[in-house]
Amino acid sequence: xxxxxxxxxxxxxxxxxxxxxxxxxxxxxxxxxxxxxxxxxxxxxxxxxxxxxxxxxxxxxxxxxxxxxxxxxxxxxxxxxxxxxxxxxxxxxxxxxxxxxxxxxxxxxxxxxxxxxxxxxxxxxxxxxxxxxxxxxxxxxxx
Length: 143
Hints:
Layout: H1 2-24, H2 37-65, H3 71-92, H4 102-122, H5 130-142
Helix pairs in contact: 1-2, 1-3, 2-3, 2-4, 3-4
């Protein structure tokens, strides 16, 4: 069971990248449209802040599950998540009814950067922090 969960956590970021690509290939209202256009736009624009932070977080979980969370790997997966955010914006520029803006790319970057900062300030610098203890528990479960 542990092995299956480990494989699932390792595959999760890549499956999530595929989901992002599929959703970005459709018009922004293909999945859900809120009745009020203001809230529809506000919620969907706000999702940029967390969408790629989730991707980075899934990479961190994959590293934890494999006992590989080191600063260099952590920095690398943060760069991959940011780069994929830029790739997604370029991809959206070719999709009808979608737009690609530097503001959206900046929101993707900010989301990843904030979570990267949290991981670095807790896991690598504060062993007594509750986040660090949870991450160490996950790491210990698999190793």
